[in-house]
Design brief:
5-stranded antiparallel β-sheet; alpha+beta; 3 helices; single chain; 7 strands; 184 residues
């Protein structure tokens, strides 16, 4: 039979180790949290500049509906020259989060895929610049073409029409959210 001392000593030692580990994790979190938050802000600003390169600054974020955020793109004088909208659409592998830049007259300035669960080598190609650049200059009512894109359409990704349609849906929705041709 084990004595009380044989149970108590390991229990106390393990408790002390747990307390020390908890304290150290808490200290690490308090040191790294501000840096992580600052990095997230910088990454968000870089993404906004990617989709709206003419903006010198951005306004406060608003959320007109759940899962959608809108930020005004501002020129050097602080005037609104367009909007950056983040929204999602249902793709083949789940939700696709899309950031879209839209000018005051409703034209797309850029598209960035923030997150997705699409198939590697197929739907994941939506992140490629060659696919995203097709949206520049297009307006509300963008369509997907499997053959050759027309005036206000994009070429579908080979083997990933569902993904292509989801991105188009997100971009069209972003234009509508920002006000389309009636912005300002």
């Amino acid at each position: 039979m084990k004595t009380l001392k044989e149970f108590l000593i390991p229990t106390v030692i393990l408790s002390v180790i747990c307390l020390i580990a908890t304290f150290l994790l808490g200290m690490t979190n308090s040191v790294t949290a501000p840096k992580i938050e600052q990095l997230a802000i910088e990454t968000e600003l870089a993404s906004r500049k990617t989709v709206f390169p003419d903006a010198t600054n951005f306004g406060e974020e608003t959320s007109p509906e759940e899962g959608v955020s809108v930020v005004a793109a501002l020129d050097e004088s602080g005037a609104t020259i367009g909007y950056v909208v983040v929204n999602t659409a249902k793709g083949y592998g789940g939700d696709i989060s899309v950031m879209t830049g839209i000018t005051a007259d409703g034209k797309v300035t850029g598209v960035n895929i923030l997150s997705h669960g699409e198939t590697a080598g197929l739907g994941a190609n939506a992140t490629n610049e060659s696919f995203r650049d097709q949206f520049k200059g297009l307006v509300q009512g963008i369509t997907v073409s499997k053959d050759k894109a027309g005036d206000n359409s994009i070429d579908a990704l080979t083997g990933a029409t569902i993904t292509s349609r989801a991105v188009v849906e997100a971009v069209n929705s972003a234009i509508q959210t920002a006000g389309g041709e009636n912005i300002g």
